[in-house]
Automatic annotation (TrEMBL):
Keywords: Hydrolase, Manganese, Metal-binding. Mn(2+) binds at residues 102, 104, 136, 163, 358. It comes from Pseudonocardia asaccharolytica DSM 44247 = NBRC 16224. The Mn(2+) ion enhances activity. GO terms for molecular function: hydrolase activity; metal ion binding. The keyword Hydrolase applies. The keyword Coiled coil does not apply. Residues 187-276 form the Peptidase M20 dimerisation domain. This is N-acyl-L-amino acid amidohydrolase.
Length: 388
């Protein structure tokens, strides 16, 4: 394969961008939450104009571009929005209490532009457009999708994804081999003691105090039991201890998350955090119930696919980052179990003024539709080249 195909598809893609941007505005203005994405899926399917459409994972869709009799390269985009009230002031802002605050509207529009361009030019290997539901919640849409008969019967040789990333500057794309997103496991810690009057702490078993010590102990496990050169994170996002200032409650609860790039660290954290929080509970005479709900594993990029994609990104004129990793999580991780996979990060940052992902003010410019589409093209061509 030569750069001829890149130039041909790139030229066709440029012709598709105006319609893709219009689609992006439509999707952004009418977001659907996880598990309720049928309207979004129908809008994208209409824009793609594919004759073959397979419903998967309830609200997901598979659209083969160029047939599906032989090997295919899959390119994935996410359908769901977040339960965030938008605060961007854009003329196409959502007004329904939900928002595309993670760039999924851009990813979908970019996939449509790429798929239509591939259909116009024709390529030796079909493209499988994967419209995936429930990326932002559980149960995972990706995990359900890869188990669907409509997907498993296809000869999928590579799966490509691209995600906007404000931590990278505009014009930069990361295609890093190895782990690039962390695993994610939800933690629920319930501490039960014996409540009473705050003036007589010696007569009580304070679950709030025990909970605070347990959380500090869990953070210390991260600090002293993991390699400081490896990324491991424990965060607490919710605390609940009903009562008033002068009343010690009977129980207190914390909810948080454990993240790790290495599966060995993930396994260790499950074990050692459990030991630490139960020890803290015992010191304060309380009972501890710890629940760790397994989420998705780390996203691990295929090395050969990453290296090959960087060559195409260079030809396309991008600055390529070769080291970026994030402790964010993504159920794209599940595709690696069925085929070599690659998650790219497409820069959208412009310094400190860029609102971050999941912010009510996150509004990447329309130019990012082009950047994501061209990045997806680079990954797709790398997948096609790997079949030669």
């Amino acid at each position: 394969m030569t750069a001829t195909l890149l130039r041909a598809v790139s030229a066709a893609l440029e012709d598709e961008l105006a319609d893709a941007v219009e689609l992006r505005h439509l999707l952004h203005a009418h977001p659907d939450l996880s598990g309720d994405e049928a309207r979004t899926a129908d809008r994208v399917v209409d824009a793609l104009g594919g004759s073959e459409v397979y419903e998967v994972a309830a609200t997901g869709r598979l659209i083969p571009i160029g047939g599906c009799a032989g090997p295919v390269v899959a390119v994935r985009a996410e359908l769901d929005a977040l339960p965030i009230i938008e605060d961007t002031g854009a003329p196409f802002a959502a007004t329904v209490g939900a928002m595309h605050a993670c760039g999924h509207d851009v990813h979908l529009a970019a996939l449509v532009a790429l798929a239509r361009a591939v259909r116009r030019v024709g390529t030796p290997v079909p493209l499988l457009a994967v419209l995936q539901p429930r990326e932002e919640t559980r149960p995972s849409g990706a995990l359900d999708l890869v188990r669907e008969e409509a997907f498993t019967r296809l000869d999928v040789r590579a799966v490509i994804g691209a995600h906007l990333q404000p931590a990278l500057p505009a014009g930069c794309v990361s295609a890093t081999p190895g782990a690039v997103n962390a695993s994610f496991d939800e933690v629920v810690l319930r501490m039960r003691g014996r409540g009473g009057h705050g003036a007589y702490p010696h007569l009580n078993r304070d679950p709030v105090l025990a909970l605070m010590h347990a959380l500090v102990a869990a953070h210390q496990i991260v600090a002293v039991r993991t390699d400081p050169m490896q990324s491991v994170v424990f965060t607490v996002g919710h605390l609940d201890a009903p009562g008033t200032a002068n009343v010690i409650p009977d129980a207190a609860t914390a909810r948080g998350a454990l993240r790790a790039l290495r599966e060995a660290d993930r396994t260790m954290l499950h074990r050692e955090v459990g030991r630490a929080v139960h020890a803290a509970a015992e010191v304060f005479g309380c009972q501890c119930q710890l629940e760790i709900h397994d989420g998705q594993p780390a996203v691990v990029n295929d090395e050969r696919l990453a290296v090959a994609t960087r060559r195409w990104l260079d030809l396309a004129g991008f600055v390529t980052d070769r080291a970026f990793r994030s402790c964010g999580s993504d159920d794209f991780a599940y595709y690696a179990a069925v085929a070599p996979s690659l998650m790219m990060f497409v820069g959208v940052g412009d310094g400190d003024t860029t609102a971050g992902l999941h912010s009510p003010r996150f509004l990447p410019p329309d130019s990012t539709v082009r950047d994501v589409a061209r990045s997806m093209l680079a990954g797709y061509l790398a997948g096609v080249g790997g079949l030669g």
